[in-house]
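subagent[fold] <- orchestrator: predict structure for attached chain, return tokens only, no commentary.
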Amino acid sequence: MKKNIKLAFLLLSSMLALTGCTSVKDPEAIYSEIDYTQEDARREERKRIMDLVDKNPVQALWRANLLGDEQTVSDCEKKVIEEYNLSVEKSDWFNAARIQKSLETVKSPALSNLSKPASEVYSLSKKVPGLSSEKNPSTKKVSEYISGTVTIWVDKGIKVQNGMGYADRVIGSGFFISKDGYIVTNHHVIADLVDKKSEGFSRLFIKLAEDSDTRIPAKVIGYDSEIDLALIKTEVDAPFVFNLGSSTDLDAGDKIYAIGSPVGLERTLTSGIVSATDRKLFTLGSVMQIDAAVNQGNSGGPCIDSNGNVQAVVFAGMLQYEGLNFAIPVEYLKSLLPALYSGGKVLHPWIGCFGHTKKEMGKDTGLEVQYVFPGSSASRTKILEGDVIIELNGEKITTLENMQNVLMKLPAKSIVKIKYRRSESEVYESDIYLGARPENPGYNIYKGDIIAKSFVPIFGMKLIAVSTSSSRKYSIEQIIKGSIADESGFSENDPIEIRNIRLSDDNSVIYAEIYAKNRKKGYLDGVMAIGSQLDSPYYF
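subagent[fold] -> orchestrator:
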């Protein structure tokens, strides 16, 4: 399960496979801010926008508005309307709503050319399985909810090992959210069907709880590898459809039930309590810890209350630790269902920043930006390090978690309003484009910025170059509290020299060898090895 549980041994095992020394980058290769007052710069930006418009009309429109060139804006609006009309023609209401929202944000005159009223498009974009206002009646016994669950069966054919052939398959769980056969499960259960790196041919089947002998063909509709959710479809009349409840009122100690097929044993019901509600196991959002028995094969099954309302989706259990299991809050599922139903891989938005919750007088007051990636949406919007984000898409932002929850509800490749505070007297509001979040944001930052700046989000240390003859010698200007640099014992004003930098084969982990004179240790010198994953909740 990729990125499901960020355990310490992952970093250690990744380091063992690290290859390739990476040299310090040429500062001239880094993106530089566009000076819109210079005509040659404006001309080049117009050319870049028109090169972009066929590939991504909404982003091109946003950049045209930043440029302030009426003809370029008009040309981009025509392309945006073409994309909108194509979405309407395909009844792709999720993308039609995304485009419509973007036009509304920039107050585009092209809104008058849309073929459908805004309210109708938004309404249609929410008409997806699982989000219906109609609720199924609860039953008298918890055991009666089992009929709404299925066993997921991914047939990978025959695996040859030591000269012998073995049936190769993945078994998981799922549950119906609509009468016409839409089923929710985990992404990692069906990953072999959608992973481009996966070798061989796989087929997807489900088994009904009431008929475990019959394998029914199914297909993947949409999937989200970051939140580990997937929507699949089979052509059956669901025997029972679950209502999606709410986990916002759940607290530690509340009773829950888990239904699934542990190690292939269908119709298994276990019970327990919520142990915690805010475990940081995902790079986006928090998950629930539960003590209901969960084993291999439970993944994708529902976690319900006594009324049969789905409160979470089971996704992981630690077999070596009894009662240490985890589930995805149903709020995430409800936020992502329109995107899952739209089909394909779900893209999460980001603006190209790194930061932490801003606290003033013990109170959460917003999201402090501690780093801005050059060329990102935030960079082009003129958001600076030290700014505090206080509102996004009309929703108040007080914490990092708050920001991630708002972003999860918004589609990537759209334009929304952002409000940020630079000082008590300086508050700005801008249009910002939500780009697609990279798989490993830290890798993009490392490749696209100079070492002195990229070490802020990656290791939590801000550097200043101290030598004109060596591009590897720095002094530490600032340490972010709680960061890897802080926990490794580095201090402000420590002189350091970066001896080597390596990346894991999949670019998910970075490893640095740093020669340092550590002030906390009486300026004892030596080479320290530190590593960091290149994705974390602090990128947004």
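orchestrator: received. Logging for downstream: Residues 136 and 243 are 6 Å apart (CA to CA). The longest helix spans residues 70-89.
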